[in-house]
Design goal:
3-stranded antiparallel β-sheet, single chain, 11 helices, 383 residues, 2 domains, 7-stranded mixed β-sheet, alpha/beta
Amino acid sequence: MWVKPTARKTVMYELEAALAEDHHFSGGHVISSMCTDPLDIAKEAHAMFIESNLGNAGLYPGTLRLEKMAIDAMGRLLGAKDGNIAGGIVSGGTEANITALWIARNITGKKKVIFPKSAHFSFHKACDILAMEPVMVPLNENFTIDLDEVTRRVDSDTAAVVGIAGTTELGAVDDIHGLADIIPEGVFLHVDAAFGGFVLPFLRDLGHRVPDFDFSVEKVSSIAADPHKMGMATVPSGALLVRDRKWFRTIHKDAPYLDTVGQLSALSGTRCSAAAAASYAAMRSLGREGYIKIVEGCMDVTHHALGKARKMGLEPVMEPVMNILCLRVPDPKAVQKSLDVKGWKVSVAQNPPSLRLVIMPHVTKDGIDGLFSDLGDVLEDRR
């Protein structure tokens, strides 16, 4: 630890130097991230509420009110028909998924969790932390969860079954209705819509065929959705919503020293609750119409990228369901490294191996044209 204070000018110089090393969405070259540049109003809201901590909600009734309104809006977006949907703003999909399985374990008293091979790594992390048994099942030809395999694996020891609404690698959507038909009464059905939660409802508004994936499916118990992804809020802004607010009581811990004695129904104690205000600000300012325009723009750029790929003789792993495009290229990791040298941040999907592009709002058609120009050179050099 530094002994003497350092002048503000020096500290700011050091901070600016570190910031200059980072990759920024504004440059349009980051095509690997599921996050984007937040709305200005979300940034302003985050700064306004920077000291808020809903871990001690008695001090922050205004912040708590904003969180409740944000969760209520998300509940309606995600198919809730009554006022019993409850939830909270958390740090992201990982915390939401861990908390959902924590609730499932405590409600059912069981420990087996069934999830697809395409599931986010947070489910393995959750099982490790919660001493639950992970049961990973294969995918079908559509890169979604194999329902027949789920039928074979689900049994009296099953606490939860997980479906994904927008897989991290491909953006595929599992058959949530099919899962609901399979699972016995009492088994917790959790949907990870960390990415799809702020995409799929608006694709439906645009006329796309979107299967029911949310609380409109009667057996869905909980949903994870991230405002800091396509919700245009600041990091960290995740959300967990559950069908029955009483379920949060299964994980509550009293803390008598707080200003309001009551439950801390979250994995975190101290919470970055500026994210609640930022999420509220983003949703309130955009409204449904604003999100529809954002999703429409992202899909337009996604299909532009698909067209460029096909002109180069490259085919997608699957037709893009949302704004994620995975392309079959020879030796994707080597191609990724070559593009990195040229300043492009793209990623690689593993199942199957492919070049993965995430077309967020900061990605433009001009940016895609530049990427594919360099991609063409990279592929030519490898021939």
